[in-house]
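Bench notes, afternoon.
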Amino acid sequence: MLYIMRHGKTQWNKEQKLQGQIDIPLIEEGRQAAITAREKNKDLHFDVCYASPLLRAKETAELFLEGTDTPIIYDDRLKEMSFGEYEGSLGYFDDPKNPVNVLFVRPEAYVPTGSAESLENLSERSKSFLDEIVYPQVKEDPHKNILIVAHGALGCSLISHIKKTPLEHFWDNLIGNCELVRLL
């Protein structure tokens, strides 16, 4: 089985700042949500956890799996999408003048500017992770429980590959902070 969890809440989540690959830690609310998720899912056993090396995902994985013997393996392909110089911006969702806005309103029309990452690149690295890490393990042992702890856009990309979601519905796959979703 494959499960995915989005990291707990950060100060930037709270302030509605655009997060990407800037390494923002969890706030206490995010830590508590990871602990609550652990208690809620205490009957689930995970054989392995793959996590983004960014602090917010790393800390979420550690808190969620505390007290278990589940190994956590960090993989750079699970980092959040890079929004380049727009990371930390406010109003990106509501301001059509913000170049990142189209990503959230019409992802199929998104063209990155500056050093922002393209959806194509995000898709390639998430597909690479699924093809090289997840699918071989699921094929070898369908009863193995694999957990991925990552981020909003990266999670949408993984889920979109698995569900074969059209790009215009990319954000339909967004999961909440510390929400655990079973995929395979």
